[in-house]
Amino acid sequence: MSQRQPVKIHRRPELQSSSLVVAWDEDAGQLGQKVTDYLIQRLGGEEFGEIEPEDFFSLGDVRVEGDVAQFPEGKFFVCPQDDLVILKSAPPQFEWYKFLNLILDVAGHYCQTKELYTVGGMVTLTAHTAPRALLATSSSPEVKEMLSRYDLIPDMDYQTPPGQRPTLSSFLLWVAKGRNIPGVSLWVPIPLYLVANEDPQAQKKVLQFFDERFALNLDFEPVDRKVREQNEKLAQARLRLPEIDEYIRRLESNLKLSDEENETLSQEIAKFLREEEPGRRGKTK
Amino acid sequence: MGFRFHKKPRLKSPVLIACWPGIANIGIIAVDTLRETLEAEEFGEIEPWDFFYPQQVSIKSGVLEDLEFPASKFYFKKTASGDLIFFIGEEQPAAAGKAYAEGGKAYQLANLVLDVAQKFGSRRVYTSGAAVAPVHHTMTPRVWAVPNDRSLIAEVRKYENTILMSEVEEREGEGNIVGLNGLLLGVAKKRGLEAICLMGEIPIYLQGLPFSYPQASKSVVEVLSRTLGIEVDTTRLDEWASQVEEEIEHFYQQVPPEIKKQLEKLKHRPYAKPSEPSPITEEDKGKIMEDIDKLFKKRGEED
Predict the structure, then answer these.
(1) Is A105 part of a structural domain of the chain?
(2) A123 and A34 co-located in one domain
(3) Which residues in chain A touch residue B50, judged by CB atoms under 8 angstroms apart?
(4) B3-235 belongs to which CATH class?
């Protein structure tokens, strides 16, 4: 009986050198997923391999989300014209260290990956009308120095608060650091009330960085259109729901909301944006 | 996957005392009290990344400085009555959302701990944990002892304030020890090592409360210190137990009279003298747990 391989490679990419971008499911505002989808679509990315789930996920049941059965996936894509490799994956439930090393093994062995970028959203209690910031954690002072020419915040201090755990992106950055692979974790704070939906402004912020860093010459019109559409919907929500408008105005004035008010704001915005989705309008009251 | 030694002490047939966190941290507090009181010296650790998700990241001025994992450390102490190795695991290598280790990872970790112990010549192992029991918090907690071989039963019977599973009402010598504190007994047995798990009693209605139960840890410390022939100062444990007693009394005062009436029945030990009629029935026990669950839910909603 042949030994089961933890990855399935559909075809070998031919890259002399590459950069790896990693995005996880279950991300705030689906930021990593949306950014990597955009890159794959605009740069003609093609899937070349996938991680077999049985070593890393509990397969005793299937989660149903948005009426659809889900299955944990970890898929590798390559954009050969731009020397980019992308991994879109569900965060593993166990064997994290093995999983993260496997990612770097595949990227190194098949794509000669020389640097790593992770993308993630984080929650902030600010209004959507405030500009988005791009925060970066580097694996070394040299990488931080390289980032200084980009429009981002490269010097934050952070320690995991009690009762919480580090993110999987931080874990991956640490594993990469141990293997002398330069890496950066990119984070965009996303307004709490957009976390369950998506945040095109945050997506654009990350895409602008990648565009400049990898000279991608991206067309930003599709994401710009999404920004405009969402801003219009949120403006309508403020007009129709005075309580929501009041909450957002308070956030715009740097005033805090109570937990209950934050929850109401998040629920009402999620509901409003859902009702405004194409094909759903008028279906619910 | 392996271990790292900072130093290699010369030890003679050291007894291994190993522990991981569990219910009310009874076992780990007992073992750590011994380690601390004896000023045992750290000499090695198990590499954590294959077993654990990290617990803390430190980012300083935008650069990832460090990632901290739960520690799994070895300590040693040479005493007049023999050499000791302590192993203290800060966490069990459990799957996400679970408190106790199971499956391959638990087995690997148990084997690594025993690899180290045998490398230094250990033949005897102790682990410690909690025994959730139908007892009242005003009673001195006993220690339930589970050896991994029948030949150890006679020895265990001599331990003070200690009972075997067969002396616990309705258990007839049967039960299970969840997680690594139990698994280590089995892995030791497979290797032909003597092992005993000592479990301090905790009242059934306190197992879910968010504080430790040093009273039971003290009972375990007393058994271990007598068995190993070492003197252990339990002053700090006594002080801690007094504080916890106050918290428990505060909680107990808030228990509605009808539930308290059920709990009071636990003051009469339902076991140890199996020939006597039991003052508390299985039905009573079920009712107590149901009422306590309701009480917690109510408190949670009020919080």
Answers:
(1) yes
(2) yes
(3) 97-98
(4) alpha beta
Q: Provide the CATH number for the domain around residue A127.
A: 3.40.50.10900
The whole-angstrom separation of Cα B263 and Cα B137 is: 10
Domain check: are A165 and A267 in the same one? Answer: no
Q: What is the pTM of this model?
A: 0.83
Concatenated DSSP letters of B256-294? -HHHHHHHHGGGS-SSS-TTSPPSS-HHHHHHHHHHHHH
Whole-number pLDDT of residue B165: 86
Residues A214 and A227 in one domain: no
B54 touches A at CB < 8 Å:
yes
Please report the ipTM that was assigned to this predicted complex. 0.85
CB-based burial, B140-165: b 16+ in 10 Å, e otherwise = ebbbbbbbbeeebeeebeebeebbbb
Sequence-ordered list of residues with C-beta below 8 angstroms from that of B123, at least 6 positions apart, any chain:
B13, B193, B194
* B107-154 tens-digit pLDDT: 899 999 999 999 999 999 999 999 998 889 999 999 999 999 999 999
Residue A159 lies in a domain: yes
Is residue A69 in some structural domain? Answer: yes
Residue pair B83/B77 in contact (Cβ under 8 Å)? The answer is yes
> End-to-end CA distance of chain A, in Å?
59
The residue among A219, A236, A259 that closes a domain is A219
Number of domains in chain A: 2
Q: Of all residues in chain B, what percent carry a pLDDT higher than 70?
A: 83
Give the mutation candidate from A165, A180, A187, A259 for the B interface (greatest B CB count, under 10 A).
Answer: A165
The whole domain housing A180 covers 7-219
What pLDDT does residue B288 have? Answer: 65
* Residues contacting A138, CB < 8 A, separation 6+: A144, A147, A154, A182, A183, A184, B62, B63, B64
Partners of residue A58 in chain B, C-beta under 8 Å? 95
Tell me whether residues B53 and A159 touch, CB distance under 8 A. no
DSSP 8-state secondary structure symbol assigned to residue A16: S
Whether residue A164 sits in one domain with residue A48: yes
> CA A13, CA A131: separation in Å to the nearest integer?
38
Residues A97, A112, single domain; the answer is yes
Verify that A96 and A206 share a domain, yes or no: yes
Residues A212 and A74 in one domain: yes
Mean pLDDT in runs of 10 for chain A (285 residues)?
78 94 94 97 96 87 75 94 96 93 97 97 95 97 96 94 93 97 98 95 98 97 96 95 96 95 95 76 45
Same domain, residue pair A228 and A215 = no
In angstroms, the separation between the Cα of residue B105 and the nearest Cα of chain A is: 9
- Residue A280: inside a domain: no
- Among the listed residues B251, B54, B92, the one whose alpha carbon sits nearest the alpha carbon of residue A97: B54
pLDDT of residue B302: 39
Domain boundaries of chain B, sorted by first residue: 3-235, 254-303
Q: Which of residues 88-117 of B touch A (CB under 8 A)?
A: 95-96, 105
Residue B97: helix, strand or coil by DSSP?
coil
Task: Indicate if the pLDDT at residue B262 is higher than 50.
Answer: yes
Q: Sort out which chain B residues have CB atoms less than 8 A from A184's CB and list them.
A: none
